[in-house]
Specification:
Blueprint lengths: L3 E4 L2 E4 L1 H10 L3 E5 L8 H11 L3 E4 L12 H7 L3 E5 L15 E5 L1 E3 L5 H13 L4 E6 L4 H13 L3 E4 L10 H4 L7 E5 L4 H9 L4 E5 L4 E4 H21 L4 E7 L7 H13 L3 E7 L4 H11 L3 E4 L4 H6 L7 E2 L1 H9 L9
Parallel strand pairs: 3-4, 3-5, 5-6, 8-9, 8-10, 10-11, 13-14, 13-15, 15-16
Antiparallel strand pairs: 1-2, 2-7, 11-12
Helix pairs in contact: 7-8, 8-12, 9-12
Length: about 350
């Protein structure tokens, strides 16, 4: 049986899925993917229907990471298995009462890297006077990472290839190399992953977006964001308000009861009145609605540290990440991300 196949410029490895199908023998399967990978749905369903007697469902829910799996949809549909495309299992997830089995199906983009990006990247690194660098990527961009590592090595750079893929809130394995490198190169589409790395690294971060054919200075953009985050902290410190909204994620990978308990305990010790708020998908609109009801002084989001930075930054009251909350109560001036 073929375990690896190509679909719309992506290589899909079905080994883990095949093993689970033969073991579990599911009758109903829910397929879920980030919006940018939903076009792979038909390839997966064709494979399932050709070999197994399985009823297939397709989730419309967005997929912002391995922490964002629509378990509740599988519960309603009584699906035996969720096939999540594009991410590995989230290592920071706390144990929950969810019992649905999830198979994480990595996919690898096989498109060609634009040759102009390679020369533009070396120009950026020469500008930083970088000689020793890391090269990291998301799991989907693994082949791009390998190609860029070879190109940079052939151009005289000392390249430390980071084997473990980056996640939107996990960069410690890359930042651990700060002391021995001059810069970091990260390959990923969009702004999300590169900005996360640049927020926590003391070294320059150069991002390569192979889809938009763009090389950019992530550290410069992160500096602008960092100034805004520190201003939010300043607003809370200078305010006499004591009413804090503690937002608790309801998604399986974003429900973090130990973190919630710790934040609440520390907040109460410092005289804050804590209002606990649940949210499956937190948006600016949802935050405005709850604030109109409770009229709190500031909020701490325990579910996803990128929500305050990316989606809620324009809210008229401070919205902090867990790491920023620790900065608040400890009076630390070193930026803490994510928690």
């Amino acid at each position: 049986m073929q375990k690896v196949f190509s679909c719309n410029n992506y290589e899909v490895n079905l080994e883990a899925l095949i093993s689970e199908l033969e073991s579990l023998k599911p009758k109903r399967v829910l397929i879920h993917a980030p919006d940018g990978l939903k076009h792979i749905y038909t390839c997966i369903s064709s494979f399932l229907s050709s070999l197994y007697s399985i009823e297939v469902y397709y989730s419309t829910s967005p997929g912002y990471g391995a922490c964002d799996i629509p378990i509740e949809e599988a519960e309603v549909l009584d699906a035996d298995l969720i096939v999540h495309i594009g991410h590995e299992e989230y290592p920071l997830a706390e144990k929950s009462s969810w019992r649905k089995r999830v198979i994480y199906l990595p996919v690898f983009y096989m498109g060609l890297l634009d040759s102009s990006l390679k020369s533009e990247l070396t120009g950026f690194l020469y500008g930083f006077n970088a000689k020793t660098i890391t090269v990291s990527s998301t799991i989907t961009d693994l082949y791009f990472k390998e190609e860029i590592s070879r190109v940079l090595h052939s151009n005289g750079f000392r390249v430390l290839s980071v084997e473990k893929p980056v996640l939107g809130c996990m960069y410690s394995h890359v930042v651990a190399l700060d002391n021995i490198v001059d810069a970091h190169v990260i390959i990923a589409g969009g702004l999300f992953h590169a900005l996360g790395l640049a927020l926590v690294s003391a070294k320059p971060v150069v991002a390569v977006d192979p889809y938009m054919k763009r090389v950019w200075d992530a550290s410069s953009e992160a500096g602008r964001i960092l100034r805004k985050r520190l201003y939010q902290l300043f607003r809370v410190k200078e305010s006499a308000g004591s009413k804090m909204g503690l937002i608790i994620g309801a998604r399986p990978g974003q429900y973090r009861p130990r973190l919630v308990e710790s934040i609440e305990r520390q907040a109460l010790l410092r005289g804050y009145r804590v209002y606990k708020i649940s949210s499956s998908y937190l948006s600016l609109e949802r935050l405005i609605a709850i604030d109109a009801s409770l009229n709190l002084d500031f909020y701490v989001v325990s579910s996803c540290p990128r929500l305050p930075i990316d989606d809620l930054a324009e809210f008229h009251k401070p919205v902090l990440t867990p790491g920023e909350f620790w900065m608040l109560i400890s009076s630390s001036e070193k930026y803490v991300y994510p928690w």
